[in-house]
């Protein structure tokens, strides 16, 4: 996690990440939120959603992979003036449910190289030859963050 992200998260009292690729995974995540906040094992997923809507302190929730165009995503968003929501998606129609949306560009080559190096070579400084190889791999993966992390982890495990 970058320093800027770490610093920005510190201002929130609660931080949650929800895999939003299906209704089932969202519901399971809200149920976990209910349990983590002492709402009891007999509560349902809606208790977690209500808790976020009513929680008085500032929180942040990240919905990752909200790509399904058939998912009624709006029903899963907490209604709150003190919450912060980030949605990652390739579904451009989700812009309609947001006050503010931002299209993110691809990762810059240098950032992609650093991300891959961070996950591939953990115990020492990369040699110039390793940097050249990693740079080539990052370019072939089009600097896609998830692919870079997976490739880096694989490389690290092989060494």
UniProtKB/TrEMBL annotation:
InterPro entries: P-loop_NTPase (IPR027417). This is NB-ARC domain-containing protein. SUPFAM superfamilies: P-loop containing nucleoside triphosphate hydrolases. It comes from Collybiopsis luxurians FD-317 M1.
């Amino acid at each position: 996690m970058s320093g800027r992200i770490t610093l920005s998260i510190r201002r929130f009292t609660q931080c949650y990440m929800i895999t939003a690729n299906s209704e089932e995974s969202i519901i399971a995540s809200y149920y976990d939120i209910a349990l983590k906040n002492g709402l009891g094992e007999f509560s349902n997923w809606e208790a977690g959603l209500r808790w976020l809507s009513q929680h008085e302190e500032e929180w942040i929730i990240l919905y990752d992979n909200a790509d399904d165009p058939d998912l009624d995503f709006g029903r899963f968003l907490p209604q709150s003036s003190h919450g912060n929501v980030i949605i990652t998606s390739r579904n451009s129609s989700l812009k309609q449910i947001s006050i503010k949306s931002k299209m993110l560009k691809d990762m810059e080559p240098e950032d992609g190289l650093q991300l891959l190096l961070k996950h591939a070579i953990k115990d020492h400084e990369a040699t110039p030859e390793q940097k050249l190889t990693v740079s080539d791999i990052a370019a072939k993966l089009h600097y896609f963050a998830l692919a870079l992390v997976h490739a880096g982890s694989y490389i690290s495990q092989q060494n």
